């Protein structure tokens, strides 16, 4: 009888010991997990992950917009508590906001102007310029245009120079139609406008005034697509997206393609495009830092999907290192 009782006591003791072990294992707060740090200690997983929240605001170039927007969509899918806003007010419009501290990031299709840098300094805004892609400004015509496939820089200058006397296509080449050229181009706040006018006319902002201008490249696409005798220009991505509605011209025999843009052969209209980052926000707001780092680390994969030419992974790292 005593032997049976002892066996029962031992069994009861083992059950109690197992219950204590299970209870101790459940001692962390509900909803939290622990993870091994690799040095024999464990830490709270939620604290280690540090979920991001807050907002990131970018504005500026319509040329850079497709890249920043594509990055923003992918970033927000992974960080749903961060709200990323991307505006399209043109490079100049974006710079006005950036240099007064209204935005974290400015999309730009040209270098910051001296007066913009002075405004930033006046307002205590420190920044860094990061190259994010290569673009080739595309000169486009209506797909029904069957008289021109190739145009020279000299002819573009003749068409677009200030006080140009070109009214008809035949004013450029006598064998072209005696029909009025309808011109479409970016507005004066656009970095593409500045770059094109300097490359073609020798001075940024120097251009004839009788053309339809818009900061929205989609308006320019629609204008050229809807008029057989139209000509316009804008970033390569907008041509790529609308190839069924437009025809891109060769410039002095060189076609705008990713290969020719990347090699620099598509001259003088191949160019780098940028984002400007407010370094104070980058250094002090984790969501801004995470977004910029995501932008540069994923540039090699995402930029080509937007129609632009990506830099090498090494080049993106070099650009990001400017902030460090």
Describe this structure in a few short sentences.
The chain is built from 13 helices and 14 strands. By secondary structure, it is an alpha/beta fold.
State the share of residues found in helices, binned by percent: 40-55%
Task: Please outline the major beta sheet.
Answer: 5 strands, mixed
Counting structural domains, the number is 2
Q: Which structural category do the helix and sheet elements fall into?
A: alpha/beta
Beta content: 15-25%
CATH fold assignment of the largest domain: D-Maltodextrin-Binding Protein, domain 2
Q: What is the string of SSEs from the N terminus onward?
A: HEEHEHEHEHEEEHEHEHEHEEHEHHH
Q: What characteristic shape results from the CA principal axes?
A: elongated
**CATH homologous superfamily descriptor of the largest domain:** Periplasmic binding protein-like II
Task: Give the overall average pLDDT.
Answer: 88
**Strand tally, please?**
14
| Low-pLDDT sequence parts | 1-50
Radius of gyration: 29 Å
What is the correct CATH architecture of the largest domain? 3-Layer(aba) Sandwich
* End-to-end distance: 79 Å
Helix count from the secondary structure assignment: 13
Provide the spatial order of strands within the biggest beta sheet.
Answer: 4-3-5-14-6
Look at the structure and give the CATH class of the largest domain: Alpha Beta
